[in-house]
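Batch 3, record 17
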Amino acid sequence: MHSSLSLSFSSSTAIPRSGHSSELSCAAPPSPLNLRFCGLRREALGFSSPKRNDSCRVIVSSRGRFKKVSASVSDNGSAPKAFDYDLVIIGAGVGGHGAALHAVEKGLKTAIIEGDVVGGTCVNRGCVPSKALLAVSGRMRELQSEHHLKALGLQVSAAGYDRQGVADHANNLASKIRNNLTNSMKALGVDILTGVGTILGPQKVKYGKVGFSENVITAKNIIIATGSVPFVPKGIEVDGKTVITSDHALKLESVPDWIAIVGSGYIGLEFSDVYTALGSEVTFIEALDQLMPGFDPEIGKLAQRVLINPRKIDYHTGVFASKITPAKDGKPVRIELIDAKTKEPKDALEVDAALIATGRAPFTNGLGLENISVVTQRGFIPVDERMRVIDADGNLVPHLYCIGDANGKMMLAHAASAQGISVVEQVTGKDHVLNHLSIPAACFTHPEISMVGLTEPQAREKAEKEGFEVSVAKTSFKANTKALAENEGEGLAKLIYRPDNGEILGVHIFGLHAADLIHEASNAIALGTRIQDIKFAVHAHPTLSEVLDELFKSAKVHAHVPSPVSEPVTV
Amino acid sequence: MSQLLHLGTSFVPSSSSALRRNPTSSPAIHISGNKRTTIQAKIREIFMPALSSTMTEGKIVSWVKSEGDKLSKGESVVVVESDKADMDVETFYDGYLAAIMVEEGGVAAVGSAIALLAETEDEIAEARSKANTSPSSSPPSPAAAAAAPEESVGAPEKAAPVKAAATVTVAKMASSVHPASEGGKRIVASPYAKKLAKELNVDLGNVVGSGPMGRIVAKDVEAAAAAGVSVAAEDPKPSPSSAPVKAPASTGIELGTVVPFTTMQGAVSRNMVDSLTVPTFRVGYTITTDALDALYKKIKSKGVTMTALLAKATALALVKHPVVNSSCRDGKSFTYNSSINIAVAVAIDGGLITPVLQDADKVDIYSLSRKWKELVDKARAKQLQPHEYNTGTFTLSNLGMFGVDRFDAILPPGTGAIMAVGASEPTVVATKDGRIGMKSQMQVNVTADHRVIYGADLASFLQTLAKIIEDPKDLTF
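Prediction for the assembled complex:
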C-alpha cells in the first residue's frame, strides 16, 4: 500500500526532471553509491511507515538530479512531520550556535550535538580567550611605552603583571561566554545532545558518549559544523609544555624568554603581540618568502614596520620547520629549518618554546562520512556555494549541509555562523547564497588589522581577466583627529574599487580599532552600496570612523552609472 | 585634500600639489644627474621628495635597501614619514645605492640629498667619497661620516674618534660556548640581543652569552657595548629619549678618548649654560650645630638622616621668607611657589640628580626621612619619575661628608636659590662673655637670583635658619 503510493509519488517527480535535464536520467544504472543508499533505505523502512514514505522520495532523488529534488522537498512544507527533529546540527561551536538560533526563529525543531564543550574552538580555544590575552597585552604595551605616555603627559611607574591572573582572565572569559551560549540555546528550546555525532545515513544521526549507549535520531536536515583543530605539520612533536599549539598557549601556563612561532598568519601574529608585551622575545618561522602572507601586501608591509621591526622579534622566511623536538633533559627546544624550495637544511634554532601556528585542520574524522559516500579533500568536506555536501561522484547529498571550518571555505567563526544562517534560510524555503567577499576578517594586534573583499593583487588579477579598471584610495590615521587625540596616528586605510561604477572590491585597514571600523565597508559590500552613494553618509566628528569617510570621499568614481547590484560572489 | 593619498598604482605620489612644488622633476623620488660631474654623470643624488603640499621636511623611517644594494627602477628604496603619512619611495633609475647620507631616524628638508645612487658598482666608492665631502643638509645625521669608509674630515664632531675604536676587537672567544653553536661556528643570540647588537654595532662573535645554555641575551650585548668590546661609532638613534646610558665604567676609562655626553650629562650641560643668564649673588653664614648634632644623635635610631633634618630646617625657614622660595622665569614677573619642595643634589654614577622632598615644611621628620631613603633608592635604580626630580623650589647641596668646609653652588634655572652646605667642624670660638670655647660650626653659602631675592632677604632667611638649627626643637614638632 505504502510502497505503491510512494512509487507514484516518485514517478511524478522524476518525470519532469528527465524532461528538462539530460544530465542524469531516471534510468541511469545505479552506481555503487546508489546501491548503498537503497540498502540503508531498507533499514529505514523497518522503522515506521510514515518514514518510509519520505525515504522513498529520497530514493528518487538519489537517482535524479539532487538539486531540483531537494528543492522540491523543501518546498513541500505540508509533508507529514516524521522526523525527530527538523534540524540537527553536529557541533556546537559558533557556527552551530548561529544556525540553531536562526532555526528556532524560523520555527524549526532543532537539536545540537556536541561531543566536547559548547562554544567550540572560538569560545574555548580561539578567538575569545585570545582576546582576553590581547586586552592584557594592549594595556601592558601602553603602560610600558614611556614615550607614548609622556606625550600624553602621563607618568606611570614600572608596570608589571601576574601570569596566573592573566591566564585566569582568559579562562573566566571563555567560561562566561560558554555559559551565555549554552543558556541562550536552552532558553530558546534547542535540545543540546551530548556525545559524538556520527552520520548513519541520510537524515539519520547517532550520538553518544564513548562507553555509553548510543541514541539514533532522525532529522529532516542535518548540518555538519564540527570545526577544526590546530594543524601540526609532520616532524613536529607537540608536548604541550615547550612545543605547543594555540590550544595550550591560550592557557598561558608559562611565558618563555624566547619563543619561536611557526607561521606568521593571524594566530601567530596575535600571539607575538601577547608574548612580546609580556616580555618574551619572538622568532617567526614563515614558509613563504614574506611575513604575514594573506594580508594585502601594502598593509603587510606597514604592519611589519609597526608590529615586527620595533619589537623584540626576528624572523626566518622561506623556511620550513622540518623537525621540532621539545625541551627535555635540560636541552632546549630544537628546531631544524630547511629551505622551503630546495629542502636543503638551512639552519637550526634552540629556543625555550615553540608555538605551532601553521593553520588549522578540519575536524571531520569519525563523522561517518563513508556511510553517505562523501570523501573529504585534505580533511575538508566538499560543499557547493549553498553549503550542500557533495559526494564522491560530485553529486549533492540531499538534506546534508556542512558549514564553518569543516568545509574550509573561510575559516572564521563569524563566517561559519553566516553560513549556518544561510543554510537555515534555504531549508525554510528561501534560496540564499552567502557572499563570502562581504565577510570581514580581523587580526587583533595592537594596532589591529582588518579587511574585507579582495586584496589589491587579487583585484588587479580579476580586473585583468574581466576587463575593468581598478583604482586604489588611501587615507592615513595621521590625518584623523580622534586617532591623534589618542596619540595613535600610526595606520592606513586602503580602498580598492572600480572607478567606472563605484563598486567596492576590497577595504583593508591597519590602525587603532581597525576591527571595529571594517563593518561599514563589509556592510556596503554585502548590500551592494556604491561609493558614490555611501560617500554622502554622515559620520560623527571626531571619530575614527571618519577614516573610512575620508576614504570613500577620496575615491574618484567616473560617472554615476546606475548599475544593478552585482550578483553575490562566492569563494 | 592633501591628507588623502590618492594613488593610482604604487607609492609614487601623483598629487598635483607635488607637481606644483617641483614642476620640472618627476613627482617620485627626485634623482637628478649631478651637473658638475657631467663626464661621469652616473652618480645621482637621491633627494627627499615632497609627499604632500604642506611637507617641508621628511623623516627617514627606514631604508628598505642598504648601501651596496642593486636597485632597479620602480623598487622601494626608503620609507619617508611626512607630516601626514609614512610612504615608500621608489627609484626611477637602475643602479646601486652607493651611500646613505641621512640615516634612519634622521630628518632632511624637501629637496636635500639623502643618498647617492651609482650607476655601476665601480662608482660606489667614488660616490661614497663624494657623500663625505658634501655633507647632507640634515642636522641630526652624523651618518654621512659613518658611511665613509675612511676617517672623515668634516664629520660631525663626536663621530670620528670613537669610530677608530670600533675596529679594535678584543680577541676573546666565548668561554661558555653554546652547545648548539657547533664549536663557536654558529652564534646563538636572542632576537632582541641581535637587534641591539646591530643598533649598538656590537660584534656578537665577541660576546659571551649569559643566558640559558650560553645564549647571548640583551644584557650581554649592553654589557659588551659598555665595555667597549666594539664600540659603536655613534648612537644610531640621535633622539635623546632612546639613548641608553652607556657611560664607560669608571674602571675602564680609556685615556685620550672623546666620549659623547650621556643623556644626563647633556641635560646637566644645558642647564649649566642656561644658568648663565641669571644674575646671581651669594651670602654666607656660619651656623653652630651642637644642638642639631645632639638632636640627630637622639633620633638617628628612628631612621632620621642629617639630610632630612637640614631639609626640614630649611623648609621651616622658608615658610617665614616666601620670597626666597620664589622663582623668576621670564624676567618680568616672579612666582611665590605654593609649596616648599626641597631638592637635594645627589651624585650617582655618571651624573647628578636632584630628588625632591615635597612639602618638606609640612611632612614630619620621620616621614621625610623615609621618603628620602626611598628617593635615593629610586635614583640609584634610575627609576625616579619626572615629578620626583624636577619639582624643586629650593635646592640643597651638601659636600660636608667630603670634609669640604665651604663652597659655592650654581643656581639651577627655574629656582630662586640654592644653598651649599659645608662640613660641621669643631671650632674654637670666642663668646660674648669673653671666654673661649669649642663649638661645632658649619658654613652655608646661598646663591640666589638677584632679580627677585635681595641681599636683605637672604640675610634674614639665613638668620632664621641659624635660629632653627641652633634651637632645633621645632624640627621634631
